[in-house]
Amino acid sequence: MNRLRVGIIGFGYWGPNLVRNFSSCPLTEVAAVCDASPGRRETVARTYPHIPTVGSVDELLDLKLDAVAIATPVSTHFALASQCLQAGLHVMVEKPLTATAQEAQALVDIADRAGKVLMVDHTYLFNGAVRKIREIVDHGELGDLYYVDSVRINLGLFQRDVNVIWDLVPHDLSIVDHILGGDARSISAWGCAHADPNIEDIAYVNVDYGDRLMANFHVNWLSPVKVRQMIFAGSKKSLIFNELNTTEPIKVYSRGVDFAHTEEERHRLQVSYRSGDVWSPDVPQGEALQAAVTHFADCIRTGQEPISDGRLGLRVVKLLESATRSIRAQGGRVVLGHAAAVRPSVRTAAAGPAALAR
After folding, report:
1. Can you give the residue range of the structural domain that contains 53?
2. Are both 257 and 180 inside the same structural domain?
3. Is the pLDDT confidence value at 257 over 80?
4. 190 strand-pairing partners
5. Whole-prediction pTM
6. What count of other Cβ atoms lies within 10 Å of the Cβ of residue 286?
């Protein structure tokens, strides 16, 4: 088959990674790079002299393309993605999908009417460790999940158009959505702004997924140390995902707490503690973005829905929007509706290869 011709819109922070991965993917080729900055276009010309550059999306759409990948500020996502979808192109958008849930819903509707693939670049969903976590949870090895706790902190890149929640929490929300399934019931967020009074650089987000399952996310641009860790605690075992441990990113712990079963034991608040082995499963290697790019191309060729489709992107944006409402109300809880009663252990029976590829 001929390679899919892809245009890259934006050559700032993430754009160069997209150009590199779309160029190396056997299913795609970079047909052009679009950026309004002459300096960035010159950088493209020096690094990739065979790739044409243009200064506007209108010029890009004059070329014979199959798809575009958008890596621009979130405030521009809706206008660019809708223009490209309506021009008959498949679209991959950097996270988060849009700046509002209304825009995200509109993009999903436009893509459906056009019959085009709309995919959000939630790259972590293509990370080997995250895929392994999904497999472990789907097979019921952790039992019923009690909580998810995530810390994503660093001396980060300060953003001008979004706060730390919109910058970092999409990673965790997309991971939890992909692994757990089901909708959130409510959300609350707290934060502080230091560099810019209108842009929070430290935040804590709490999400209630119903059925006694809660998730907490701590994100921070001011931390003197870098931490990338998620804990998935269950009734049988618990799992820690440490992204910075490249040799053993996942560790599964058999230790935990067993709660009382009878009414009398519960009345006496009896619990028992258990100790067990710690093991680290084998995690497939490979660059997550390359897997995401290949998946995007596969979806275009086969017509299948992407793992990180527009609807997942919409769910993430709804949570981000609600977190913003909460943080403006000093942590006031925002009710989202009733969570779907989907426990990972219940889903296990249906979790074959097709379920894992969702």
Report:
1. 4-124+289-309
2. yes
3. no
4. 204
5. 0.89
6. 12
